[in-house]
Amino acid sequence: MSSFDDDGPRPQTDREVWERLRTGSESAFAEIFTRHSDAVYNFAFRRTACWATAEDITQATFVTLWRRALAGRTDVLRHDSARAVLLAMAGHESANTLRGLRRLTALKRKVSVEEVDPDHADRVAAGIDSERQMRRVREVVDRLPASQREVVELVWWSGCSMQEAADALSVPVGTVKSRLSRARARLGEHTVTVGREELA
Asked: Rg of the chain's alpha carbons, rounded to an integer?
């Protein structure tokens, strides 16, 4: 469904699509998924340092969203983008998943590249390497209190605005700013760069 102006049809904003989602529209759900599933997937990977777990969390996040929509429990979207709300949901799913998958993550670290079909060895090796690098980043971020980690992940890593993060976390924007400031101070000399990820 598109809106119209003098120049013809224009894509709907997330807020407009979200309103349709709140009524149980399958097409609206599909549109939100198409727009934001990659962001949720990348966010979940940063949380877990495991591509397979990130895929599970992405699926769980959108399943939860759809169930809420069908039950009439989806809140009104306060911004034009749904990204911050979805990432906050993914954060909760990540915490739930990690509590039950810590042994699985340890097992994945032991997987030998030599055991993989040679045709896929390069891709698997790259995936394992990125997981190892992401674990280094997590070791630094995990030194922060949970409240500070949340704003680091939403603002620094995912590009949400201060206000979007505040609304997604149900805190004042001033709280987001102070948490970011304290996070930077706590990180101190610890600088880790992984691809486009940089801390401190």
From this structure: 19
